[in-house]
Amino acid sequence: MSASDTSEKSEPEVAVGSTSTRSPKYGDDPNSAVDAQAALVMQKGLLDDIIDGIQLGVVIIVVISFLFIAIFAGSLPTVFPATQPIYDFITGIPAFVTGIPECALMIKEEFPTTLDEAIMLSSALAAWLEDLLHTLPYKQCVLAFSWASYLWDTYLDIRQRDRLHEVRRPLAVSSFISRQAYIEANAYGLDQSSLGLINKLFDQLATTVIIVYDLIPMLWTAVGTAMLEYAGFGAEYEITQSVLFTFAACLIASFLSLPFSLYSTFVVEKKHGFNKSTLGIFVSDLLKSYGLGAVFGGPLIAAFLWVVNKTGSQFYLYAWALMAGTQVLFILIFPTIIQPLFNKFDPLPDGELRSAIEALASRLNFPLKKLYVVDGSKRSSHSNAYVTGFFNSKKIVVYDTLIEQCTTDEIVAIIGHELGHWKKSHLFRMLIAAQIQTFMIFFTFGLFVGERTMYTSFGMDTMPTIIGFVFFQYLYGPLESVLQFAMNLLSRLHEFDADAFSKKLGFGKSLASGLIKVHVENKSNLNPDPLYSAYHYSHPPLVERLNALSDPNVAPKTE
Per the confidence metrics, is the pTM higher than 0.85? Predict the structure, then answer.
């Protein structure tokens, strides 16, 4: 049964954001404004028609393909030679399936039982991998991986979009979210979805053009030509050329994404009451980002390339150490140097809220040094709070929008959740997980960086390290998606753990009401598609968090 069929049969008269009673057509609130908004959310526009048409076309192609296979059978490749790979794949499935037991038995028999056998197997696998890397069709693999990833993401987006078109609340949220708030959240989600689908399609087409027409080698050559013409720097200045190439590529990418960023900020966000930014602030932020990229990115790229060039085949160890140190440094300087360039941080004024937060920090022996309120409302009405800092120099930052949206008890409960991350060492765990991911990236890159076939397949006649890393990132995409899914899974577990920590402090009800308010005010998705949320979300959906908070096995402490 779909969520649209699980309309509520009995509801409280007033939920969060509710002002009136039930309507026979849309569920509640019979005024024309809400009815009209519900109709707009339900209505499928041109983009939805295109999606439906593509889905129908895929179904028709599949059906016709099976009909052709059934009619022509073994003569299909002869009649239509282009179908030979598809025919071979389909006809090979039975043999593959029936051969699995035999293959498993062979693996069991050949599995090494001594150290010498294990060494021999490792050597054979290494030789096989080396031969594979020499003959791999790199460009075709990149295109295949890129489109497979895009189609998977688009499939999830479409599933999520279908949920957003629903206007009847599922029973799981009907007791605490009004239909008006639910419809507004879905309307916001639909506008984000529309922009996101178009943006992703544009990015995918741009990526395809870049790969097919060898635009990366063209940009590398153009930068080298400019260096030689205007500065007299030749090919021996590879690191300088690599830094300039990276800056040029980032500027081009920023230029291509600029229309989508402008539309998101000044159309979508403004339409739904979130955007508080001006064009001047937008441009200022963009220029500051460019400046930070030049100040920090340039030296980091140069240091990375120097390490790769100087440390030989085990460069991945030194490159990983460099990036680990950089990440720790960034965590240290971000709240004190970088973020103040974009936002104003003021000490939280004396009063009930400050006293309550300081009392909680003292209760937990949290080494609180600074307690700030940040002017998040300067750009957006989205809300947040977080804990930052290392060792005995910790800071708590509360957005002014959160103070406007929630009560003191709710804010303290949310801070209790954030302190749960600190108490349970979640931030340290995520940092370790990130280091493992970074190590895997550099170790895997070490297998590809010296493969001339990879460079020539993309139109390169030289082997600059930075270009190899760009090509490798395309190849690494599928593994990166798996690792990111694992990181999101770990993050969601941490969120449940931090919620339970706040509840044990006695803030269970306040945390639940605070989470509801934050989700309503931010118009967060209240009924996400399970597969979409499992793959994309770093935080559990609201309903799952509320269900966990109501778990009687997680009881508050008694003091």
Answer: no
